[in-house]
Amino acid sequence: MSTETADWDLPTLIKASIDHGEEAWNELVRRFSGLVAFVIRHYRLSPTDTQDVSQLVWLRLVEHLGRLRDPHALPGWLATTTRHECERYLRVNGRSVAVDPLTLGADQTDDASSVDDVLLAAERRQVLLDALSSLAPQHRELLLMLSADPPYAYAEISRILGMPIGSIGPTRSRVLDKLRDTDAIRAYLEADRSEQMGRCP
Question: Which Pfam families does the annotation name (predicted)?
Fold first, then answer.
């Protein structure tokens, strides 16, 4: 990895990638592979399927990178595209819901309550992605880096985002507060409260 490309901001990195800069493209993939993996992981695909979907996502980016109007919209575009590719992959392979038999139990995969739980989890993931997309690009990247598996080291986050290491923890707390206050999260929580009140005798 080139030290030079690792220090580039996102607009510069995208422009260099469009201009067929191999090092820039490799750095772009490295910088956002955690985001793609984060989204794919929630669909419980096999390692082989995960690799296939990931390759499709990067292929889509190659096709659309030159049409991206706002470079800072790339994380949201990648998250949405990855989700669409996961859902498409499941449909093509005859699986409409990402159910893990090891989690649900082999004799419970067709149980209605188990499917409801999976659908609810998928709904919550979508709400989270919508909420993340409304954050400032740097704040969104910070949360995604910290929630990657494994999470980015503070030193690496500091280098990529240009943040002092000592400010990462406090910034994370402030960003989480902002995340909870997004329209997507507030609307979801309000709907959940209304539903629970409707169940009360």
Answer: Sigma70_r2 (PF04542)
